[in-house]
Amino acid sequence: MPVEPLVCPHTATRVSSVLNRDVKHFGKQHLFDGSEETCWNSDQGTSQWVTLDFPHPVKVSELQIQFQGGFSSRLCTLEGCRTGEELVKISELYPQDSHAMQISFQVEETVLDKLKITFGSSTDFFGRVVVYHLGVLGERL
């Protein structure tokens, strides 16, 4: 099966925080809008995260991410589960502190309904994370 983007308008997205609660300018909707001018900007804190609840089961195989240099994460932990189950660790990724699109984080293929991406160890002194693009690729089941 071909790999395709898994986030759709029916995917429920939550984030740990938004800078100054300014959802209009820095909210979660900017993770997937395809614009190079907008971003999700977390507030400060030690661990930021994004959760995705897919409307149907998916098999995740790849993660694409574009941070703002200086506001990236040295460690991304992926956890996932099926509906009604507890999250389990799938993978750990080690992104670069760069503004470039980082596209080849291969993930051990896992069937899930919910994905949580935790951004630990921010390169920003205050723990903020800035993400211009988040792509979750795989197969819809």
UniProtKB/TrEMBL annotation:
InterPro entries: FA58C, Galactose-bd-like_sf. It is found in: Nucleus. Keywords: Nucleus. Its main location: nucleus. The keyword Ribosomal protein does not apply. Residues 1-66 form the F5/8 type C domain. It holds the Pfam family F5_F8_type_C_2. GO terms for cellular component: nucleus. The keyword tRNA-binding does not apply. Belongs to the NR2C2AP family. This is Nuclear receptor 2C2-associated protein. It comes from Loxia leucoptera.
